[in-house]
Amino acid sequence: MKNWINQLNFWRSCKESNLSLSECPGFLFVLTGFITIIGMIGTYILTSHYTAPEIAALCVIGVTLIMSIIEYLVNRGVTKIAQARIRLRDTNKKLVRALGRVKQEEKMREDFISMIVHDLRSPLVGIRNIADVLQDKRIVKDQKRYNDLINAMEASSFSMLSLIKDLLDIAKIESGKFEILRELSDIREIIKEKVNYFNLEAEKRKIKLEKKLPKSLPSFKFDKRRIGQVMDNLLSNALKNTQSNGKIIVQAFVHKKGQAEKIQEWIAYPKKMINLPDSTVVLVTDTGSGIPEKYLERIFKKFQQVKIKDGVREGTGLGLAICKGIIKAHKGIIEVESKVGQGSTFYFALPIK
Amino acid sequence: MKKNKSTQNSNSRDQKTEILIIEDEAAQAYALEAKLSVEGFKVQTTTSGKAGLSLTKKTKPDLVILDIVLPGIDGFEILKELKEDRETADVPVMIISQMGQKENIDQGMKLGAEDYLVKSEVNLDKIVARVKQLLHHK
């Protein structure tokens, strides 16, 4: 009796695993027993009407038939179990992957926070120490050292301030409260101004900084200061990543919706741009070491610190995320194309309204 | 008065004591350099870990003051390399870092640092006192 209840329980568990009654091994066992009993009764009845060879033939046909039915049922059950197993394995894999991603993001967030804490505390400790050392009369007498200390203190406060500014920008971008101030401007002026500004450092490092601009570009409404900030970021990144005797080119052109223009030998016209409304496109190309493909897709995300130069940490990793926020606020796009050993091109397109 | 006297004493004694500071935060490096200089030490400063490593091997200073978070090569790697090299294994290393967790300090001491100070917990006077203590024990 208990066994029977167990069997019933087994059927219930089969049902719970989404298997029908006929696919339960327990059911098949009972079915076989039932068929055997019917077969025996049938044989008993048949022996009184038919001769032995006829019965034998009937038995063979009957057994074959029954075996086929049982095999079919068993196969169906097994296939379903196998499919369920595959589904389970896939789901498992997906879960493990998702968990890995969450862990990785968590780690990046932690790294980012400890980096910010370090980058804020470090100059502050420096400023405190300088303030401390400046109370020493022996140091104040040494004019050169005194000036160096004051300059270092100023540089430290400046680096703290710019980091705080970046953090506030990121916070605004993330909360969706980032606002831009559009005014009718000429983007050529901004490019010229920024190229001139960075030319000083470029010359110092023997890097050729060129601009190739069309005679005129349409004026349209955009946030001059913010686009200037994007240019600052792209140009300072390009300078950081280019060795001396390298080259940086700033180009600009007008994109017409649906048309593809040749940008550069090794850059295919970006698919994302073809359907963009008429825009002004600005490109900054360097002959640096290039960015490995695995970094490209997350380069505009915050918390990303792409180690390009011998593992040297460059900046806070917020610059490009802020650029993306600024360009997005203009309903434009910002992208990068890069080949290791050849260089990188960062470009952004701003729709002309 | 007493303090002045001892400073003067150490001034004459440490006249040729060379200290190399490896610290990437310019303000901190300059402050420490200024303080140690007026205390009578001969101080050299570098903000790059790699340069610091080769300078130590070249000049063999009497003490290396080492930061941990540095661009390129970190302080622990520098310390390990210095202690593994027979030429520089004897150069005492004082770590002054922001990283103040027990495991960081343990790692530094295990790698052979003579002292480990946590930046936000010490002022310049304390650093100078520990430097003098370390050099006198040598």
Which structural traits does this protein have?
A: Heat Shock Protein 90, two-stranded antiparallel ribbon, 12% strand, B: 138 residues, Rossmann fold, five-stranded parallel sheet, 6 helices, 5 strands, 17% strand
Question: Low-confidence spans of chain A: pLDDT under 50, at least 5 residues?
Answer: 306-312
Assign the CATH architecture of the largest domain in chain A. 2-Layer Sandwich
Give the total of beta strands of chain A.
Answer: 7
Alpha-carbon distance between the two ends of chain B: 27 Å
The counted number of beta strands of chain B is: 5
Beta fraction of the residues of chain A?
Answer: 5-15%
Q: In this structure, how is the largest beta sheet of chain B organized?
A: 5 strands, parallel
Number of helical regions of chain A: 10
Quote the CATH topology of chain B.
Answer: Rossmann fold
Say what oligomer this is: heterodimer
Radius of gyration of chain B: 14 Å
| Content of β-strand of chain B | 15-25%
